[in-house]
Design goal:
The chain is mainly alpha-helical. The two termini are 30 Å apart.
Amino acid sequence: RARGIPVNEPTAQRTSTRDYKLLLDLDAAVRVEQLIDPAMSEGSLLIGAHAAGVAPSLVTAVYARHLARTQMPDGHWAIFDNRPPHSHSAFTGAAIAAHAIQLYHPSPQPFVARARRWLAAAIPQDTEDATFQLLGLLWTAAPPKAVAASAARLASLQQPSGAWSQTSRSKEPDAYSTAQALYALLAAKAWRPDDVTSTRSVQWLLDHQATDGSWHVKT
């Protein structure tokens, strides 16, 4: 919508109603019936709900408090799923959980500050780590110097083709890592859309789009 792309509104409404109806159930939130991987599941749920326009409520505050209580003393969150790249990176978990707390916790500051310190000090190992370090530092309002250093690290992982790989530069690049890395660098204003580095990435994505409009990412 924000980019002027037509949206099937009835379908969007049905999807939002289905996906976020549990945020109307205070009893289920308090009982914590299913809390498998809080940073990735509840964190992603709350960020998606915010994007869909779900207003803060007692239920969203309960889920945000669950997230806050599972934060480690050093500021990160344990990731239990262990499926790289996404459900594997402590950087992804920290960025998502901190942002969700920021959006829906009644007193987010101490948790966000701890996450920001951890994100700034930890050393990324691959594209997933570097992308969500940068996004996490942006979301938690880190100092410009820390954001710039993180952006430079992520940019250095770009391959000559303009793409990024998921877990190391020796692996084949894919649309998942390329799109999110480019998004993070543009969001940080480290790159401009008309930079050659950006246009090379966009062209790689266009060249690898399937005829049905999708991008295939290997497991």
